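Q: I'm writing up a methods section and want to include an example of the input and output format. Could you take the sequence below and give the corresponding predicted structure tokens, formatted cleanly so I can copy it straight into the document?
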Amino acid sequence: MADTSDFRNGLIIKYKGDPYVIVEFQHVKPGKGGAFVRTSLKNLKTGRVLDNTFRSGESVEVVRVERRKYQYLYRESAGLVLMDNETYEQITVSEELFGEGVNYLKEGTEVEILLDGQEQIISVEIPIFVSLKVSETEPGFKGDTASNTLKPAKLETGAKINVPLFINEGDVLKVDTRTGGYVERVKN
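A: Here is the clean output for your methods example:
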């Protein structure tokens, strides 16, 4: 058991029966009354973020997790097939654990799996930025650069994002998997 003095960003605790990661925290010592800790917690199973206040010194259960690197191989009806980079063992993981980022996964992408003490998967973390090739987009017109106009583009994984007018088919783009937004064009 730990208490609120052990809080740090990234610490995983058990709260209301689910594993939560501390996104941010702040110790508050008001002029009147006891001190408390204001936290922002992210549920590792659902991805929901909630704000909670703990009394200073309150006990919390710290969840010990193990991080393992896996490589995404392919998609099947039961989920996504991943291979352990050390043992080459293959496992099938449900798509729900990937969240919206599953749309930006291509074969060979390295992901990180969080496992609890009973070897059960808590969550899957995909890279924040991925490089993907544009498979379909309309051509941009010369002289159409006065405003910050965007056009739709389809990526090699099937995901659709909005990109600037100068992007063409075959260009490789850096995409933010958290927001699904265009970051930049990757130089060859």
